[in-house]
Amino acid sequence: MLHYAFQIVLFQVIFLCFYDLLLKRETFFNWNRAYLLITPLISCILPFIKIDFLSTDISSKYVSTLTQIITPDSDISNSKVSIDLIQNFDYDQINWFIIVYCIGMFISLFLLILKIHRLYIINDISIKSIISKTKVITLYNSNQAFSFWNSIFLGDSLTDKEQEQIIAHEIVHIKHKHSLDNLLYECLKIVLWWNPFIYIYQTRVVELHEYIADSIAIHSIEKKSYLQQLLNTSFQTESISFVNHFFNESLIKKRVLMLQKARSVSNTKYKFLVLMPLFLGILTYTSCNTDIDTKTLHVKNTMNKNIDYSVLNEPYCLNQDSQYDKKLHNYLKLTIGEKASIIVKLFNLATSDTIRTAYVPSNNTYKVKNIPPGEYQLKIIYGTDYIETSESGDCIAQFNTVHFTEIDTAILDFTPTQTATGMNVPSYTLSLDVLPEALKQVK
């Protein structure tokens, strides 16, 4: 989840930088509008796009579902198998990440509802009229001017000349459905309330709306008078982010400069072609990138220089359809001695299904986590030179040299029980090694 959020932020930063550097100062406003509406949505979709031919052909042995590998202690047991039961009490663990996220969504949704409610109140208490086939709502003792949906809101303190220019400007917002853009961003702010760049996106869209309305309105109004009004007016504005304000002090200077700017030549649109290699790079990243939550390998072991620690994992090809119970925070901790590496298969006694297969090199420890409830036994293969092969579409883990194979007699009961203090989730720690006598018999 966190990795997905990181990718959304990363892609939106890239798209915003591209816009600010290459597109923001150009006058093909409709193209820029499409860009600012599409790219934040694409940023949410791109992490799920995996294109096979863009991905790097990496052996499955370099992919891991482990979340932690621990350096073994120096006092590893020399016994064949040593099992310790750990009573792991799960006190109805709360996912605070989800709770905080939902609270943020609720607050953002509440603020949006509050803004819409304020507009409805203004609409109910104000005088309404029709000008140029557009609904105009007069605001008492106000010099504000903005539009939303199919309505223009005008303060009664504005002069007739000001109202004429404002109506011409706001009609453009209405005809071009700019309120839909604003509502889209309000919805994105509910889902992505934690992402600061979605708010930056919205400011870019708001200023672009003003550029579009200004560029069209001056065709029906004398340009010099229009500019003079923008330069000489300083009005208060309501803090309703999804309406189109005519007098937005922070935008007036930018609007004047954009009105004075020469129209961008059509060849400038070729800047959008730069998006092609940009998208290709992003798709390559998402195709080659694995999900950190389930596949990233973290290795911390420098004890044996001869071991390739990149293969410390539950073999991915063997565990694609394995059973995991994310609600259970249990584990099977395997500590392997120095005499041999092992392949461990955890199988359910009731169904005889192998729910997980793990490979552990000698002198290492790691945990197999999120094991479903049930009783299990271990099939243990001791050997060297680990390889993975495919037979009839099935992935097989094996050793080039097998010392011996055994099914351990111990029964591992992973069934959780409810107690007075909380949920008791059993976990186990196993120390496995090959006794010297056993290796002599193999030889």
Helical proportion? Answer: 25-40%
- Overall spatial form: elongated
Q: Quote the beta fraction.
A: 15-25%
> By helix and strand content, what is the structural category?
alpha+beta
Radius of gyration: 32 Å
**Roughly what is the average pLDDT, rounded to an integer?**
75
Which stretches of 5+ consecutive residues score pLDDT under 50? Answer: 56-83, 234-239, 290-313
Structure annotation, total helices: 11
Strand elements, count: 16
Through-space gap between termini: 50 Å
- Outline the biggest β-sheet: 6 strands, mixed
Order of helices and strands: HHEEHEEEEHHHHEHHHEEEEEEEEEH
Could you characterize the architecture of this molecule?
- Helix 5 runs antiparallel to helix 6.
- The strands form three sheets. Strands 1, 2, 8, 11, 15 and 16 form a six-stranded mixed beta sheet that branches. Strands 3-4-6-5-7 form a five-stranded mixed beta sheet. Strands 9, 10, 12, 13 and 14 form a five-stranded antiparallel beta sheet that branches.
- The relative contact order is 0.16.
- It contains eleven helices and 16 strands.
- The two termini are 50 Å apart.
- The chain has 443 residues and is an alpha+beta fold.
